[in-house]
Structure formats: structure tokens, C-alpha cells
Amino acid sequence: MGRIPDDVIERIRHHFDIVDVVSEYVELKRSGRSFVGLCPFHSEKTPSFSVSQPKQLYHCFGCGAGGNVISFIMHIENLSFLESVEHLAKRAGIALPKQDDAEDDSPAARRRKELFQCHDLASKYYHHILVNTEAGVPALKYLRERGLTLTTIEEFQLGYAPNRWDVLTNFLKRRGFQEKFLEQAGLLSENGKQPGRYYDRFRGRVMFPIHDGQGRVIGFGGRILGKGEPKYLNSPETELFQKGRQLFNLNRARQHIRQSGKAILLEGYMDVITAHQFGITNAVAALGTALTQDQAKILKRNADEILMMYDGDPAGQKAAFRNSEVILEVDGNPRVAVLPDGLDPDLFLHQYGADAFRRIAEEGSMSITAFKLQVLRNSSQLSSHEGLVHFLSQAVQLIGEVKSPIERETYLRDLAGEFNVSLESLEKEMKMVSSFPKSVDKPASQWNTNIQNGDRISKKTHSLLPAYIQAERKLLTHMLIDPGVARQVKETIVDEFSVEEHAALAVFLYSYYEDHPNANPAQFISTLSDQNLIRLASELAVEADSIDERPGLIEDYIVRIQNYDLEKRLQLIPKEMEEAAKNGDFEMLRTLMQEQIELRKKLDRHSVGKEG
Fold first, then answer.
1. What's 54's DSSP letter?
2. Where in the numbering of this chain does the Toprim domain appear (predicted)?
3. Is 64 among the domain residues?
């Protein structure tokens, strides 16, 4: 199998400080010899994500995620190993071998490559139909009437899927793709009444390609041209496309979001495309769904502020309320700006222009609490005594949900001044109607199914493990940082590790040290492909910062491991002896008694060796 040479991978890995790379996605704070932060791979309120600068490794004690800078980029950007190396090589300015020499030709890699290829071909074909054929004229007219220029249509590779059953099917079949594969890719659908018969999933629709962070087409959104339901149809969930983990236009907007510190969250494809055409280049959309935690995390990683711009109708208010809660759950900073006259961003930009849009974004934005108070005020009967009291009570309850005491007092002072009531009375009301529940960890997100579904043992429960398992873990930790210990273990206990993952990791370490005379945990982890072993090695390497190095401990761990199998066998022998005596099998009884004596001698020898 062709692959990137190890020395090139090492050059790429050594080029980066893992703390710098992780800091682009996670807010890290120094804690002793490591850096800690909230894990980007599962939701938590208490930091359990640790990054070791000396070892160039990360590990989460909450969900088990771990590895080096390459595996971090793999999981955070949802890339394959080869794609992650290419991504980092490009950043580092390091030339890779020719693609033919480095190509990963594993079945999984070939399938992934073909999935990208068929989506790329479909996107180009839909675009060709839109701009170059008679069939695309109505769709092109629709887009031009919506105010899009040909340049914008070209840049976003907008297309048209004709209202026929087999246009894309035949096009891709002629290029060697099988119908079943295309159905799994989300481009075709299977006929429910005739299994094995397939047809184009998208028909009679304007097509919006959806890209991943590297600009590759991974799915589509299709808008019906004319009447029909559903109005919008997205690609189904596939190996490439998970709707809740993608944001429309992020591939173009990410750099502008990072530069400005602000992400503008709009509602639909046309809103984002029109905004881009008008020079608003930091806008994205959530693919027609309610914002998910994974999408909110992506926005938070790239932006200090997430500005939601919707029209002021009830649907827009509901979307702002719902999405702001999700953003707050990941400790993001949501803000809201309401467009006037019930206009959505697309219509507003065409009617008033980019400068007016920017003014509202800059001067008209407000915190989510201020927005909720504004909505509450507009829906309340403030002219009556009862209406005013009800509004103030509801407003105080909203303010009570704000975490910051300073913010809470500021809102209360504003209310007191505006409605001529005392601050003290509002504070008393807050104590009566508000509660401040303690934050609890949210369920794990679906960021990385390998990480979330893996068996894991939290740091707190390590002390509850049986002594022999603790000994195996500690011995492996020493082996990771000291090849001499690895040699000693190999010569002494060979394959006596009881936990399957421990035994596998030991074998890989033995092999690694045959080619590498010095310990280098980060480099060793680069040689692993099994995610469970990567997590285990990363966790042990991070724990090595506080390893116990008292004389004699290695021998003690070895004895504990050796004794485990002996003790386990000794526990079984009495029952077997009883069974043999009961059956009158005295030959077996003598054999078992001799085995029992030999095992006890071995245990005694281990104890003497340990004491000596």
C-alpha cells in the first residue's frame, strides 16, 4: 500500500506545537505542566481535556479522546488520516510525495474518494444543465430574478436537477458508478415498490451544493421550482454528510469569521449567498434545521460573537430563542439583530444594500436577554397596572437566568429606571421567582462516533480497578517513556497482560523500539491506527507526567501481573479436586495437588524476588 513516508509525517508533526493548534479550537489554560480546557468532542462544564506540551499529546479524561496533532485534526475536522496529513502539510509548507506514491489504497479510502468524486461530478453536471441547456432556462431565470449575478451563480456552483427520473442516474452510470453505491451516497433513491430499481433523488429543483471545510462537495440542498412539497430537500445522512455537523458556506466564510471575530447566522441558502454577493463574507446557515450543539461548537471555535439576523416575525423570534439556548450551552456568545419591515436578509439587502445591513449588524445587535426583554415588552399591556406588574415579574425572571451578577444588576437597574420602580423591589422579586440551577454536563455530542462509542474508564475510577489491571496500566506507562522498561517486560512476562488492549499496546511498543532506540510517545502514537489503542496510549502518556519512579516499582508491577494468572488458577483447583474425589478419579486428584504445590512455589518465588 502506497503511503506517506514516516520521516515526512514526523517533519509535519514536529513543525507544529500541539498547544498552538488545539488553541485554535479550544480555550486552554495552563495547569501545572499541562494545559486544560473544555473538551471539543463532548459537552462538559468542568474541563477534563488535557494537552501535554512536552509530549505533544492530548487526552480527555471524560470521553477518552486522545492522540497527537494529526489525530486531533482528523477528529476536529472530520478528515481521514491522509487528509489530515495533507491539511497540516499545506499549512506547514511541506511538500508531500506525488499523490500516486502516497495514495491510501485501502478499501475504505477508495470508497471515500469515490464518494467525493461522484458528488463533484453531480455538482458540475447540475451546474452545466443550469447554465448551458434549455432545461435549465427556467431555473436560471428564477435565480436571476432573485437578484443573483452570473458570477455568484458560478462561484457557488448552483445548478438545476431536471424534473426527470434518470438524468443523473444515467450520467453517473456512464462514468462507472453503480446504482446501489449512488443510493448510499444520497444521490439516488430506491423504488419502494420495485426493490433494486433506482431513480434520481433530486428532480425539478434548483441545486445548492454543500461543501465540507476543505471545499469538497458532500451533499446538496434542492429547492423545488414551482409548486410541490417539500419546498426544500436535503441529501440524506451519509458517510460524508451529517446535516447537524455542517454549516452552509463555512468553507468560504471561516477565514472571514476568524478575522472579524463574528459569525453571522442566517436562515437559508439564498440569504447567505446574497449576503456573500453584497460583500458580507462571514455569513453561514444551519442547512434548514434548528442549530445543533455540534454546529454551535464550530461557530464558537471560530468566532467570539455569533450574530443571528432574522426577520422580526414569530418564526424568526422562535428561531432566535431556540438557537441562542444551544449557543449558550456550549458557552458561546449569541447576539440578535432584527431586520425591519418583516424582511428576510435576502430581500433586505436587495432593497436597502450592504451598508444598511452592516449598520443593523453593528448598531442594532443586542444580547439574547435584551432581545427576549424587547419581545416581552412588545407583547405586554404596559398601559394597565396589571399588565405592567406581569411584565416586570416576567422580565425579572428572564434576568434571573443570566449567569453574570454584574449583567443581572445592569438589567435590573435599567428596568428600575425605565419604569420608576426601586432596584430593591426588583431584587426581592428576583429572589422569589428566580432559581439558579447548577450546571450539569450535557449528553455527549455526535462529533466523533468512534470517540463517543468507545469503552472508556474515567480518571476517577482508575483507583477502583483490580490491582493487576492497575499494574498493567502503570507498567505500560513506564514502557511508553522508557525503552529499557519495555525490554525488561518483554523478557520477563512476554504475553501475560490480561487486558486485550494492554497486550496489543505492549506488542506495538516492542515492535516500535526495534526500529527506534529512544522513547517518543507522540511519534509512537502516529504508528497506531486502532482508535482504542490511540486513546489508551494518549491517556497513559499524559498520566506519565505524574508517574511514580520509586526503585523496585517495575518489579512490583511485573510480580502483580504474573501472580494474577497463578492466583486465578489456584482459586479454581479446590473445586476441581473436590469433583475428582467425588468421582473417584484419584489420578486426577494427585495431578491437581501437584499443580497446586507448584503454583504456590511460584508465588513464593515471586514474593522472595520482590522482597530481595
1. T
2. 261-342
3. yes
